[in-house]
Amino acid sequence: MKLHIKHFFTFSFLFELFLFIFTQYLALGVALSYALKYKEQALKSSALPAWQFILAFIIATTILLIILKYFKKPWLIQVLFYFAILEGLWIFGSAYFDWPDVLYFLAGVLLLWLFYRNVFMHNIVLVMAVSAIAVLFGQNLMPSSAIVILVILGFYDYIAVLQTKHMVSMFKGLAENKVYFSLIIPQRFKGLFKKINEVSPQTEFMFLGTGDLAIPAIFIIACLKTSFLTSLCVGLGAVLGFIFLYILFITQKERVPMPGLPPIILGCLLGYLISFLI
Predict the structure, then answer these.
(1) CA nearest to 146, candidates 274, 272, 4
(2) pLDDT tens, 209-221?
(3) pTM flag (> 0.85)
């Protein structure tokens, strides 16, 4: 398909772009809030090596694949999903609220999320949880370690989506159980209020995986150890990489799943290099 200016003014693209930008800079806000609240603990340089992060990622992915292939228990998958969301919301709330206000925040968000169960609330909750979890990892990584992780995961994403395609199979398995570790992007505004049980890859929705949100956010937070300007430049690079990803997706001859991380990571690394030239 030929690229046209109108592609950049569709509701789906503008909404997806907004959520991507919002996640990156919300993570930055959470990290800075922690730095203000816990000056002696936040944003310390950490000796956490890249291999530990990669090992944890491999173990988590393997466990999820095993559950999907052999156990096929929807409730077990949903419990894991809810646990991840709960942890992310707790970290997010702790950045802005003291005890016991964080409990009220958590209870309020969870009630809204569980009561409405629509696309809009799903995306809002996921953005808050992902941005907070990105801070959890990013503040324990040095920029050099984060770069190694980005490069490895970029190659992994390419292989997992286009070669082995196990990432596509994993997404389909989760979608069958109505568990979406991804942003749900409707084609039209009214799609925001669709119930989650009405959503599927066969309907008018697109999906952006949480990894495509979290990985650049982790690098942004890690770069705070260098400077705030570096983090801003990396964030801008991530946004440009995301726009490039959208262009690649739109101009496909045939719409197929695409690895999102490689162009986003390329943008992050370019932003990181440019920050040293400013």
Answers:
(1) 272
(2) 888 999 999 999 9
(3) yes
